[in-house]
Design a protein that fits this description.
Elements lengths: L14 H23 L1 H34 L9 E10 L6 E7 L2 E2 L1 H11 L4 E4 L7 H6 L1 H6 L8 E2 L11 E2 L5 H9 L3 H21 L2 H8 L8 H4 L5 H26 L5 E7 L3 H12 L2 E12 L1
Parallel strand pairs: 2-7, 4-6, 4-7
Antiparallel strand pairs: 1-2, 1-8, 3-5
Helix pairs in contact: 1-2, 2-11, 10-11
């Protein structure tokens, strides 16, 4: 190549100049190859390479979709006897560490949370959801759960996990209360007011008149994997980004760090987050690091 070492010194690097030099050298290399093989043969080779690459990526895409569908069927609200959550184990084919995904509902039976806690004690590290500190905004969003737990008709409890008593190291990569509160105040006023006003009404209606079967229908099925624009009401996109996407990024950064530091250890790392966050976890660990579902089993969140 015609790029000289002194041209790429730290003080002399210019992005546009570097791009121009690389393109110039690539063009010359292409012309030399065309002269040696002939234009017609080179076109055929280009077509073959392009089709091979497209085919490989397409097959990888289909495989990841299958993995995603299998792993994201984390809830089964349409079952005749209740709602279930799938504990999914992901592992890279060449490393011993496993991520164990616990897709959580924040309202369920006490037996469900006891079973989750029992399984967490068998892991060597727990990555857990939870705004760090007391947040008025987070309390507003979770008010529905706290109201529903008072319903004798439902007989359910709010997520109860004594993470500090597990005897297992726990990492909490979620936002701090101060950060979440600051971001919340930056949202449009109308969506925030609707959350404050409508969440108690909705929860109160279910508590007074609803049943576990009705609550299961309200949860919706994750089997269909609806597009974002289908599941986020207009005007609530920024709130969705704050509650889901931005917190997903913090979680994925933490999982990436654990993978890089400990993937060669024979350990199980539990990921205890809401079911909505598991889409991003499965996709990211699959696409970035090659993790694949190796096993799964069901836990009963609550029965009808």
């Amino acid at each position: 190549m015609s790029i000289r070492g002194q041209e790429l010194g730290p003080a002399a690097v210019d992005r546009s100049k570097l791009e121009a030099l690389l393109l110039q050298d690539a063009g010359r290399a292409y012309e030399d190859r065309e002269a040696g093989l002939g234009a017609e043969l080179l076109v055929e080779l280009e077509r073959a390479v392009l089709l091979t690459v497209l085919d490989r990526h397409w097959r990888q895409h289909l495989y990841e979709i299958d993995c995603l569908q299998d792993a994201i069927r984390v809830l089964a609200p349409g079952r005749a006897d209740g709602v279930r959550s799938a504990v999914v184990r992901l592992q890279h084919p060449q490393t011993p560490m496993r991520f164990v995904l616990f897709p959580m509902l924040h309202l369920g039976s006490a037996d469900f949370y006891r079973e989750v806690a029992t399984r967490l004690r068998g892991c060597q590290l727990v990555v857990a959801e939870g705004i760090r500190g007391r947040s008025t905004a987070a309390l507003a969003l979770t008010r529905a759960y706290r109201l529903l737990r008072r319903s004798q008709r439902l007989g359910l409890v709010v997520q109860e996990l004594d993470l500090g008593g597990l005897g297992v190291p726990v990492i909490g990569p979620d936002m701090s209360a101060a950060e979440f509160g600051q971001r919340w105040r930056q949202l449009a006023v109308v969506p925030r007011m609707l959350v404050w006003c409508l969440v108690p009404l909705f929860a109160g209606g279910i508590a007074l008149l609803g049943s576990r079967r009705f609550l299961a229908r309200e949860l919706g099925s994750l089997d269909d994997l609806p597009a974002r624009e289908e599941r986020v009401p207009a005007g609530f996109e920024d709130m969705e980004r704050l509650i889901v996407d931005d917190r997903d990024k913090l979680l994925l950064d933490a999982l990436a760090s654990i993978h890089e530091q400990r993937c060669h250890e024979p350990i199980e790392v539990a990921v205890v987050y809401g079911a909505e966050h598991m889409r991003a976890v499965v996709h990211d660990l699959s696409a970035r690091f090659g993790y694949r579902p190796v096993s799964a089993d069901w836990l009963n969140v609550f029965r009808f």
